[in-house]
Amino acid sequence: MATPVEKWVEESAAVTRPKKVHWCDGSEAEYDQLISDMLATGTLHELNQQAYPNCYLHRSDPSDVARTEHLTFVCTSRKDDAGPNNNWMAPPEAKEKVGKLFAGAMKDRTMYVVPYIMGPVTSPYSQLGVEITDSPYVAASMRIMTRMGSVALQRLGSSDNYVKGLHSLGDLSPERRFILHFPEERLIWSVGSGYGGNALLGKKCFALRLGSHMAREEGWLAEHMLIVGIEEPSGRTTYIAAAFPSACGKTNLAMLIPPESQKGYKVFTVGDDIAWMHLGTDGRLWAINPEAGFFGVAPGTNYKTNPNVMETIKRNSIYTNVALTKEGTPWWEGMDGAPPAEAIDWQGKPWTPASGTKGAHPNSRFTTPASQCPAISPHWDDPTGVPISAILFGGRRANLVPLVYQSFSWQHGVLLGATMASETTAAATSAVGVVRRDPMAMLPFCGYNMGDYFGHWLAMGERIKQPPLIFRTNWFRQDQGGKFLWPGFGENLRALCWVIQRVHNEAGALETPIGFVPRPQDIDLEGINISPAMLNELLAVDREGWLQAAEGQGEFFSKFGDHMPREIWRENEDLVRRLKA
Ligand code: GTP
Ligand code: SPV
Ligand code: MN
Known about the structure:
Layout: H1 4-16, E1 20-23, H2 28-41, E2 44-46, E3 56-58, E4 72-74, H3 79-82, E5 87-88, H4 91-102, E6 110-118, E7 127-133, H5 136-145, E8 147-148, H6 150-156, E9 163-168, E10 178-182, E11 187-191, H7 196-199, H8 202-218, E12 221-223, E13 225-231, E14 237-243, H9 250-254, E15 266-271, E16 275-279, E17 285-288, E18 293-297, H10 307-312, E19 318-320, E20 323-325, E21 330-331, E22 343-344, E23 350-351, E24 365-369, E25 386-394, E26 404-406, H11 410-418, E27 421-423, E28 435-437, H12 450-463, E29 469-473, H13 493-503, E30 510-512, E31 515-517, H14 532-539, H15 543-558, H16 566-580
Parallel strand pairs: 1-6, 3-19, 4-5, 4-10, 7-9, 9-11, 14-25, 25-29
Antiparallel strand pairs: 2-3, 6-7, 6-8, 10-11, 12-16, 13-14, 13-15, 16-17, 17-25, 18-24, 19-24, 20-21, 20-22, 22-23, 26-29, 27-28, 30-31
């Protein structure tokens, strides 16, 4: 008797008609074979194997370099369930329209069947997925990003409790590209893209869009959050989860290195992009990282900003859309040292610093095993996860939002997350640098009506006996001249120290209309060049600006109609009242 997954693979093969079907076992030999096949076809290029053992370069189609939110749909039976935060198509219409693109799509290609686990292999919080793909690059990347192969198939057995993901490169044309989610069937269809969140279906499609939908039904949280543990000199470790929008600093914060002056602090990376959080029997919120690798932004990454990741990506990593030096090493804007005198750019063309173009694409990335990170937490693979004491919501904002501040309560914290806005980045194909509302950094990833999502957060707050404290952060405030006021990166630990001390009732704060803001003396500035005037600017609360923001907020909330919880409206009204007082 065929198992449910075997049946689905057969059905999918009947539609897509591959020349061959390969079930991935996740072994090293299989990975090596995938790599050598891709080297032979030119899908991968070998990097300098002395300097970067087992590292390769992939160049994606120049029209396929980032997530495409306008081509991403949530296909629920009722439009209202997807909400105004999602593009929607009725499931029958979606299947009709996009089904045509799958017909014969794998002709002359191998179909890879990729079984995978999101989360630690034995964790009760982990979930199973199977991705069918005609991209060997996706199959190899899934081996880095998830627990992939026999281990997953064994856990699945003859169960049909898994998320189905059907993926084809199609013809890579944006005209025929769709990323469809069917939460009611736990199904993903993705065609026409081979890049990142569009194609590695375990990540945004499963762990966030379908994940958030499941989490609401089952009473947990699936969030776009890093998870980090901070050990103080006393030996006490506090775990923090932080939601920042795409390319706003999650990977960097997850593995920061304490500054010289903060002796005795240690930072442990649990996850850099996604957190699945469940209520523990002890009344606390426990988080696992569903992923097994990092798909991180290359530009701006260097030994000063993120030495841990620089060490991580030296071996067993796949680079996508970075530049290639004459020595066969990867390069990108913002890497250490001077730019190479000549290189091959991300599109494979000769490049020099005088070319006037970017050598690496602004959304070029590396795919690298989490286990290689020097800062990886001893608990990163722990089936129970880690207990979360604080949640941060942080955007990229040139003005208004202070470096760090704390909400008055869980409910007020939900407002802090719900009102987050951030300047857009190259992680998605649209204008870069415009402030857009991105509640909880989940606007592109919430798989259902966002009004209901806020309601779910409120409901979770009721159920958590020891809820994490909620904070807002902003490492990106600028001075009049457009320069960052805060040095960021490792120095962000100074803000985290205040957060940790607040968790343990050990730090003071100023009560302001927007929340508890640290007083200048509450942030340790030992060994860093920040003038008192700069610190004042970083922590300033601009009442007029906040009042405008709070009033504009109503317009956004109104879009969700009666899905919008009254409590959030009330929190916003309270904020306005405090600002006017
Ligand atoms: P996704 O993988 O898209 O979800 O991004 P992310 O949130 O993990 O962002 P990441 O840590 O990769 O950082 C993105 C960009 O922001 C990089 O170019 C970083 O160098 C830069 N960045 C990260 N942290 C800071 C910071 O504290 N200050 C400043 N100024 N830039 C930062
Ligand atoms: C993001 O955009 O938040 C990412 C990259 O983490 S991708 O996997 O492409 O979505
Ligand atoms: Mn992300």
